[in-house]
Q: What sequence folds into this?
């Protein structure tokens, strides 16, 4: 179904050969295979329109490999799927390496922070620094005994009003 060049292009997307390609080569191969898939898809759609009688036959003659465009499209689509999976695997591998390096740097920084860089001041002749008097802040949280008291007061007031009626 495929010409020799197309077969070699698709063959490199299979298991052992795909691991020999790096990211740049994979992206180039992805573009070439996508073009072939799109061409086969266009031919498939045109042939379907011809069968239904909605389109005129295209061209006088076609090369020998256009007899089964649907199978050709499926071959190229499967190759494209394999390339996308390999590119995703490479991207995740690079991300994992990056995360491992960042974690190692963070661990090294944390370990260096545990050591004291400056010696203690030791005994001094004077009192030294004195803390400033803090202003007392107003309490902003609601005390636990107040929670629900407003709604309870509303219930009591409503009960009193209802009993007067």
A:
């Amino acid at each position: 179904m495929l010409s020799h060049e197309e077969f070699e292009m698709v063959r490199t997307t299979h298991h052992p050969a795909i691991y020999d390609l790096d990211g740049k080569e994979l992206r180039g191969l992805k573009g070439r295979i996508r073009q072939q898939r799109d061409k086969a898809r266009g031919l498939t759609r045109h042939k379907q329109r011809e069968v239904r009688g909605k389109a005129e036959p295209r061209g006088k003659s076609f090369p020998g490999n256009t007899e089964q465009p649907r199978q050709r499209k499926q071959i190229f689509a499967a190759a494209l799927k394999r390339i996308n999976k390999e590119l995703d695997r490479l991207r995740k591998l690079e991300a994992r390496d990056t995360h491992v390096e960042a974690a190692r740097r963070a661990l090294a920084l944390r370990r260096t922070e545990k050591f004291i860089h400056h010696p203690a001041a030791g005994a001094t002749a004077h009192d030294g620094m004195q803390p400033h008097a803090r202003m007392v802040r107003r309490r902003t949280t609601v005390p636990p005994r107040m929670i629900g008291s407003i709604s309870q007061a509303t219930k009591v007031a409503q009960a009193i009003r209802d009993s007067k009626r």
Notes: The CA atoms of residues 51 and 115 lie 80 Å apart. The chain has a mean pLDDT of 85. The radius of gyration is 38 Å.
